[in-house]
Amino acid sequence: MTYLVDTDRIASYLNGRPDAVALLSSLRHEGLAISLIIYGEIYDGIYASNDPRGKEATFLELLRRVEVIPLTRTIMKRFARI
What we know:
Blueprint: E1 3-4, H1 7-14, H2 18-27, E2 32-35, H3 36-48, H4 52-63, E3 66-69, H5 73-81
Parallel strand pairs: 1-2, 2-3
Helix pairs in contact: 1-2, 3-4
């Protein structure tokens, strides 16, 4: 099973919140993914942060273990149904 992680959890992870770090660490063996929209939202936060280079480095490290899912019409129709 792969878990689609939302923007808030990724942002919390990047900010070192223990609950988010523990959650993503515990689920990474089952698979983690983010959508391209979340990818863009995270970069928006990175660029607005006080430490863009540090946050980006942490995000890039996380992306080694996280699949980035492209959005398609089929995926968006499924999203709408759910």
